[in-house]
Amino acid sequence: MTTARKIASFLLKTKAVKLSPDKPFKWSSGWNSPIYCDNRITLSDTEARTFIKKALAKAIKKQFPEADLIAGVATAGIAQGALVADVLNLPFAYVRPKPKEHGMGNQIEGKIEKGQKVVVLEDLISTGGSSLKAVDALREQGIEVVGMIAIFTYGFKVADVNFEEKGVKLVTLSHYNYLIDEALQQEYISANDVESLKKWRRNPAKWGI
Questions:
Q1: Burial class for 94, CB neighbours closer than 10 Å (0-12, 13-18, 19+)
Q2: Letter string b/e over residues 102-137, b meaning 16 or more CB atoms within 10 A of that residue's CB
Q3: Phi and psi, residue 53, nearest 5°
Q4: Which of 13-17, 99-103, 196-200 has the lowest mean pLDDT?
Q5: How far apart are CA 152 and CA 9, in angstroms?
Q6: Per-residue confidence (pLDDT) for residue 1, from 0 to 100
Q7: CB-count burial class (<10 Å; 0-12, 13-18, 19+) for 146
Q8: What does pTM read for this prediction?
Q9: Nearest to residue 91, comparing CAs of 124, 118, 53?
Q10: Which of 100, 107, 173, 175 is least buried, going by the fewest C-beta atoms within 10 A?
Q11: Contacts of 16 (CB under 8 A, 6+ apart)
């Protein structure tokens, strides 16, 4: 089994991903969605946590060998980022959505230095908006962002456009298509569900309306 399929299998096994085409979830954006993903749940499963940690580290070594800093996106990317930084024996920092309103007012927590080459680590990519705000914050501090890595992506076209416009290379371990294939193989969903799930990915804002 490929890494992408194995990750998809772990997401289903740990119930980090829930698929419900008939009773959709409501996202904070207002979208109706047949899928809900919370990759933090994989942290509670030792087999999944270890596999994902090693897979992220291996991908970073291959795709971003020049990296000398790992930065997690708060909050979901913090734990995964710290685990991976430990495997790679690299420094770790994390980026808040906005600066703290008290204390030092930091948005980036951890020791960073201008000129460092960072890989930003995220658990999940939807549109990429919040993830790319972390990239902006790092760049403002003189950090060179060599790329971003994530466990899973929905594969929205808007995300591809957003990352391209920011000039950020994105690497993900698994993808929505692998998840649907694995869910069908495990009989988690039926063949009749597949077309509805694919339609959602093509136009999530209009799906279910």
A1: buried
A2: eeeeebbbbebeeebebbbbbbbbbbbeebbbbbeb
A3: -60, -50
A4: 99-103
A5: 12
A6: 75
A7: buried
A8: 0.95
A9: 118
A10: 100
A11: 10, 37, 38, 39, 40, 41, 42, 48
Strands, DSSP E only, in the chain? 17-19, 25-26, 32-33, 35-37, 69-73, 92-95, 108-109, 117-125, 144-153, 170-175
Using CA atoms, how far apart are residues 81 and 71, in angstroms rounded to an integer?
7
Q: How many CB atoms lie within 10 A of CB 36?
A: 15
Q: Which pLDDT score is estimated for 54?
A: 98
Residue 103: pLDDT above 90? no
Helix, coil or strand: residue 190:
coil
In the numeric block, which tokens belong to residue 166?
A: 């920011």
